[in-house]
User: Which sequence fits this backbone?
C-alpha cells in the first residue's frame, strides 16, 4: 500500500518537534483570528508571509495551512455567541447557532461545531491523500493549452460563485489579470505599466494587494458601523450534547462532510461555498426543516462540517495543479514561490516530504483544534470582549510592519494604502475583491501559457478546442456561464446566497 | 438621461477607465506582435478591451435598470487609516519604530468612534514593546528602533 508508506513519511515530517510547534502556532493563530470578527485568514496569512521567508518551507506551509482551517473552527464560536460571523464561512452558522445560544444551548452548539469540524477534518485529510496523487499524475501530462483552459475554468468558477452581479465579477477578474501583468514582461523584457516607478519593475507584490484590498478595506468598513453586540459569554455552562442531539447530528455531519469535500475541490470553491451548500441541502432533506432558523442543531452541524472539509480539500487543486481555487490558496502559492518552490504537479514527486508532511499536519492540527476549542473555549470567549478600538490599531501595526519588511521600502506601504482605497471603493460599488485577487495571481501564468500554446499551434486559436482535456475545461466553463446567465437559475442562486 | 443605478454606473465608469487606459498605454508604448508571437502589448490590449466593453455594458444598463444608491463614504476613517499607514512607511527610517508607531497608533485610533488618550497611550506602549521584542529581536528585521537624531541616547 503506497498510501500507507506515504502517510508514514508524512507523520515522520509532521511529528518533528519544530513542525508540531509551527502547526500549533498556526492553529492557535487561526482560531484567534477566526474568533475575532473583522480579521480574516487572507489578511492574516498575507501579514505572516514575509515572516515565513526565514522558515523551512515545510514548516512555513504547515503553519499557514493551520491558520486557514483553524479559522473555520474559531469562526463558529463568534457566530454562535455573538451572531456575527467570525469568518465569512460561518455566516450560515449564525442563523441557527445564535438561536441555540439564546435558548441557553450555546454549549452543545459549540461542541457540535467542533466535533463536526473534527470529523470533517479527518475525512478531508484522507480525501486529499487519496485523490491528490492520481490527479497530479494526470496534471503532469498537461501542456500549455490545457493549463490555459484550466485557468479559464478556475476564473469562470470564481465568477459564478461570487456574490452579486456576474458582470461585475468578470470585470474584477479582468482587472486582476491586468494588474498581474504590471512589471517586466518575461518574454520580451519590456517593462509594462510601471510608469517610471522602479519599485514595481518586478511586479506589484501580491501581499501588498491582498493586505490593501482585504485588510485595510475591511478595517475601514468596520469603523463605519457602530454595532452593539450581545454576547452570551456567561451562559456557556454545559458543553456536551445530549444523546438526542447526537442522534440528530450524525447524519448532517456526514452529509456536510461529503458535500464540503466535493465543493472544496472545485476551482473557485472552498470553505465559504461549502458551508452555504451544506446548509441549503440540509434544510431541504432534514426531518426538522421547520426548525431551521429557530435553533436547529442540524443547521450548525452541517455547515460547520462542510466548511472545514472544504477548507482542506481546496488544497487539492493547489498541490496537484498549482492553481489556486480561492484567495487563501493564491496566498499559499505566494508562500511557495517565496520559498523557491514552483507550485504544480511536480511538487508531489520532487518534494514528497513537503506534500505528505503538510497533509498529515492537517490531521494533527485538527486534533489540536478540538482540544483548543472544547476544553479551552473559555479563553476564546474572553477574547470576544476585547473592544475593536484596541484591536484594529494592533492589526494595522502588524500589517504595516509586514508590508514594509517585504523590501524595506516605504513605497510598499503607500501601495498598500492605494489598494486599500481601491478596495474600499469596490466595496461601496459592490464589486467583490476575491475574484480580482485570483485574477491577479493567475495573470502572468495565463499570459505565459497562452503565448506558448499559440506559438506551438502556429497561431491557431482552435487548438484549445482540439485537445480533449483542454476542450472539456472550456466547455464546462461555457456551460457554467450559460447556466448563470439563464434567468431561472440565476434566481435560485441569488436565493441561495441570501439565505 | 438619468442614472438609475449609481452603483453600477460608477463601477462601469471605473472599469472603462482602467480597461481603456491600460489598453491605450499598451498599444502606444509596447509591441503588439501577432497571434503566433505575441508581443508585450497583445494580452493587455485584449484584456483591457474586454474590460472596457463590459464596463460600458454595465454603465449603459445602469441608465435603464433601477438599482441601489451608493452608500455614504466615511472620509474620516478612510483618510486617517490610509494616512497612518503611509506615514508609518515614510517615518520609519527617520524616526525609528518609536516615532513611526506613535504616529500610526494615534492617527489610526483617531479614526475610530472613541478616542481615549490614556488608553491609546497604553496600547502604543504595549505594541511598541511587542514589536521590538518579536520583530526586531526575535525575527531580526532590520528596523531602526530609535529616531536617527537620538541614536546615541537610546539603547535597547
Assistant:
Amino acid at each position: 500500500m503506497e498510501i500507507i508508506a506515504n502517510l508514514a513519511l508524512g507523520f515522520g515530517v509532521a511529528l518533528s518537534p519544530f513542525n508540531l510547534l509551527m502547526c500549533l502556532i498556526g492553529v492557535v493563530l487561526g482560531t484567534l483570528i477566526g474568533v475575532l470578527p473583522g480579521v480574516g485568514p487572507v489578511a492574516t496569512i498575507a501579514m505572516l508571509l514575509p515572516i515565513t521567508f526565514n522558515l523551512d518551507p515545510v514548516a512555513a506551509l504547515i503553519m499557514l495551512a493551520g491558520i486557514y482551517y483553524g479559522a473555520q473552527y474559531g469562526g463558529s464560536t463568534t457566530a454562535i455567541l455573538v451572531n456575527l460571523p467570525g469568518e465569512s464561512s460561518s455566516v450560515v452558522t449564525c442563523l441557527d447557532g445564535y438561536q441555540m445560544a439564546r435558548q441557553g444551548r450555546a454549549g452543545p452548539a459549540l461542541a457540535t461545531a467542533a466535533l463536526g469540524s473534527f470529523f470533517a477534518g479527518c475525512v478531508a485529510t484522507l480525501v486529499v491523500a487519496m485523490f491528490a496523487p492520481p490527479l497530479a499524475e494526470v496534471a503532469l501530462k498537461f501542456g500549455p493549452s490545457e493549463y490555459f483552459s484550466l485557468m479559464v475554468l478556475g476564473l469562470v468558477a470564481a465568477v459564478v460563485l461570487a456574490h452579486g452581479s456576474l458582470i461585475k465579477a468578470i470585470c474584477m477578474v479582468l482587472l486582476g489579470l491586468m494588474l498581474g501583468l504590471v512589471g517586466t514582461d518575461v518574454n520580451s523584457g519590456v517593462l509594462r505599466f510601471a510608469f517610471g516607478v522602479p519599485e514595481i519593475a518586478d511586479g506589484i507584490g501580491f501581499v501588498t494587494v491582498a493586505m490593501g484590498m482585504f485588510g485595510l478595506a475591511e478595517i475601514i468598513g468596520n469603523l463605519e458601523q457602530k454595532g452593539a453586540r450581545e454576547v452570551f459569554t456567561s451562559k456557556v455552562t454545559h458543553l456536551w450534547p445530549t444523546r438526542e442531539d447526537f442522534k440528530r447530528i450524525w447524519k448532517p455531519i456526514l452529509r456536510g462532510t461529503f458535500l464540503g469535500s466535493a465543493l472544496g475541490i472545485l476551482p473557485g470553491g472552498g470553505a465559504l461555498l461549502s458551508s452555504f451548500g451544506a446548509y441549503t441541502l440540509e434544510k431541504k432533506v432534514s426531518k426538522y426543516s421547520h426548525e431551521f432558523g429557530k435553533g436547529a442543531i442540524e443547521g450548525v452541524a452541517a455547515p460547520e462540517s462542510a466548511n472545514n472539509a472544504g477548507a482542506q480539500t481546496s488544497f487539492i487543486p493547489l498541490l496537484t495543479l498549482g492553481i489556486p481555487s480561492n484567495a487563501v490558496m493564491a496566498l499559499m502559492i505566494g508562500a511557495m514561490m517565496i520559498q523557491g518552490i514552483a507550485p504544480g504537479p511536480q511538487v508531489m514527486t520532487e518534494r514528497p516530504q513537503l506534500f505528505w508532511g503538510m497533509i498529515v499536519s492537517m490531521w494533527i492540527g485538527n486534533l489540536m483544534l478540538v482540544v483548543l476549542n472544547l476544553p479551552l473555549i473559555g479563553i476564546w470567549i474572553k477574547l470576544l470582549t476585547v473592544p475593536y478600538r484596541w484591536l484594529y490599531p494592533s492589526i494595522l501595526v502588524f500589517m504595516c510592519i509586514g508590508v514594509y519588511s517585504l523590501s524595506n521600502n516605504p513605497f510598499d506601504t503607500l501601495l498598500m494604502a492605494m489598494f486599500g482605497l481601491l478596495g474600499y471603493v469596490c466595496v461601496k460599488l459592490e464589486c467583490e475583491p476575491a475574484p480580482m485577487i485570483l485574477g491577479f495571481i493567475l495573470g502572468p501564468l495565463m499570459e505565459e501559457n497562452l503565448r506558448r500554446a499559440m506559438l506551438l499551434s502556429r497561431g491557431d486559436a482552435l487548438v484549445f478546442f482540439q485537445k480533449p482535456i483542454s476542450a472539456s475545461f472550456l466547455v464546462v466553463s461555457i456551460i457554467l456561464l450559460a447556466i448563470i446567465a439563464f434567468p431561472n437559475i440565476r434566481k435560485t442562486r441569488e436565493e441561495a446566497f441570501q439565505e | 438621461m438619468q442614472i438609475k443605478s449609481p452603483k453600477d454606473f460608477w463601477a462601469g465608469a471605473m472599469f472603462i477607465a482602467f480597461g481603456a487606459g491600460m489598453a491605450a498605454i499598451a498599444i502606444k508604448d509596447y509591441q503588439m506582435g501577432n497571434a503566433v508571437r505575441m508581443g508585450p502589448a497583445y494580452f493587455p490590449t485584449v484584456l483591457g478591451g474586454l474590460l472596457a466593453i463590459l464596463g460600458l455594458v454595465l454603465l449603459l444598463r445602469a441608465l435603464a435598470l433601477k438599482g441601489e444608491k451608493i452608500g455614504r463614504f466615511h472620509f474620516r476613517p478612510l483618510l486617517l487609516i490610509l494616512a497612518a499607514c503611509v506615514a508609518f512607511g515614510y517615518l520609519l527610517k527617520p524616526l525609528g519604530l518609536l516615532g513611526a508607531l506613535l504616529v500610526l497608533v494615534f492617527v489610526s485610533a483617531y479614526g475610530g468612534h472613541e478616542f481615549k488618550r490614556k488608553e491609546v497611550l497604553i496600547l502604543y506602549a504595549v505594541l511598541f514593546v511587542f514589536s521590538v521584542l518579536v520583530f526586531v529581536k526575535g525575527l531580526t528585521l532590520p528596523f531602526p528602533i530609535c529616531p536617527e537624531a537620538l541614536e546615541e541616547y537610546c539603547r535597547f
Notes: The mean pLDDT of chain B is 86. Residues 1 and 63 of chain B are 7 Å apart (CA to CA).
